[in-house]
Batch of 3 targets.
Target 1
Amino acid sequence: MARKTTTSKAVSFRVEGLKELQKSLKALEDVEGQAQVKAAFKRAADEVVDRSRRRASTRMERSMAGRLKPSVAKLSAGVVIGGKPYDFGAEFGAAQNEPRNTRRGTVLGWNQFKPTAGQGTEAGYVVHPSARDTQDWLAGELGSAIEAVWDGSSGRGSSPSVEDIFGSGFGGI
């Protein structure tokens, strides 16, 4: 029987107000503008993958980082992690020196992994820290793309600044 592998969108970025921008671009039939915003998300996801590959320090982390894939949709970008059973242990760590039962008997922990790497905004060893480090760059990249789309669309008025776009609306990880 084939073993089922698990994948998950480990990191994703969301921008408040982007859905409304996409709707207005669609209403204006601005296909080029929609493509520019999607391309900015693609660059952001690629940047997180590249930084993750540079950050990976152990053999297991480098193996996991080699399988990372950027994931892009019209309104979001993410990084897909998974493919091997140990990928999530390489990213998040595992319990150390706690007895667990296996076919071979009782063993201590999952000591092949680093200790558990925090929770919430402190989670992760490779992908999540890379995404956190990328947030400022990402805000500038997406802000510039949205400004360019805004300026290129007819009937929009003056372009909003990056601060107007991302003032409090940038939701990171």
Target 2
Amino acid sequence: MGNLQETINLLFSEQYKLELPSAVERTLRQLVESRDLVTVILRHAIQTHTSMILAVDGVEGAPIIDDLQPEADAGSTLAGMPLLLVGRVQGVYTGFQSEVQEHIIWNRYGALRLALPPAVFQLQRRAFLRAAPVLGEGNRVTLQRRGARILDGLCADIGGGGMRVRIGPPRDFPLYVGEKLAAVQFSLNGKVLAVAGEVCSMGAMGRSGTEPRQVLGVRFLELPEAAREQIIQHTLQRNRQHLRSPRGNLAGGV
């Protein structure tokens, strides 16, 4: 995953929202049981803080977290302050939006009682599955850059969040990590798809035969949910085929 802001932008979207009270309760308890540090971002704050979810209130089900590190303002002044909390459950990014209710003493140490969040957000594992294109299927990719020539490449593998693309070196302006792409055009199951993208990684320049080649990691931006689901279904099918074939070979992720 990229930087924290990218993680937050992806995580706190409607497609990963869980609103059922049972799902909220279960996820909060999983965060407690993980005993991992979490990241806390207070509204309008530039600095991020770390904490740990200590418990879930037995009556209201509200989360209780350790005092923030580094320390924020005095706990009493945080009452009513909105915040974002991001952690992991079994390696999967998980988070929620809440607000500070009060500063309390928990097992002799300072802690914050938060309001019970109305929903939690959790990335789906299947969104990270990746698979190579089917042999014989069109795997050509066109990268439309802003203010530079179009680049043609080949899809190395694809998943619900992005793809790896093998390209030759640009003939005008070099690519860079973070570059926004006007469109990433490719075909899947005979249907042409085009979506905005962003360069998130760049491999070292190598060679394919006599031609120089580089592998780019491209993240999809604003991918329609129907298209994302189509890609995920493709990766699930290819992974099942791989498991049934002793000679299968699936590529790694971005």
Target 3
Amino acid sequence: MKHLLLGSISVLVFAQAAAASEFEFRGAEIIGTVYRVNPTPLVPLVPAPLPPGVDDHFTTASLGASVEFGLATNSDLIFQGDATFQYYDMPWQDFKLGSLGGHIGYDLGQGTKVGAFAVGELWDQNDEGEMILGAEVVGPDSGFTYEFYGAYAFDPMNGTDWQQYHYEANIGYATESGFGFDLGLHYTNGDLRFGLEGDMWQALANVTYAVTPDLKIEAGYIYTDYATPVWDSWEAHGLKLALTKTLGEGTSFNQRNYLSLHNGY
């Protein structure tokens, strides 16, 4: 929890500084997300074999806060800060990590916004952490919706030289009554950690509903296929449940972190 506390304090400090300058507050979001991952029997890496009575299913979760500001002198510029706590509850080991990130974007008009983002993360494991750099495009909140992003994740601190490339595309439709859905495809290439090198493909499907104007619930399904020398054509089925509380106008971009890049992994 200390990662979330430090991240939240940083976001609040940023908000206070912005309030005293020409920055103007636009909105914020608090997002809680839980994934349940149900893989086919896998070749265990750590430990090997798995302890008696332990299956391969696991749960991951995140709790994050985002805040967005604009410039009083230029309403098209977007400045967004994110702080997220993530938790991996695996039968063989637990992981916790915290992240701080920022987006700089521009409103092109008619609901389309483009941006660049940077994220720094620390794990509760020795010598574990990474940076994430990327670019993103998002569409309107209603009617035809879309989101595209590309990201580069790497370890600049510990000299491990691992790196990943992520690409994701989502398209969907949202009604003014609060119901929406989207379909997506995610591709990852590089060092997938834990001795895995290769590709990962994911198919995504989500349904959203605005319970109130400032409270949204989301349910989703993730199909994952690995193509690595160790896990050749290993598959997994995941379920996602998320709750979003919006303050003001909310934020323009989705939170970026290790868990969101891997859609629950």
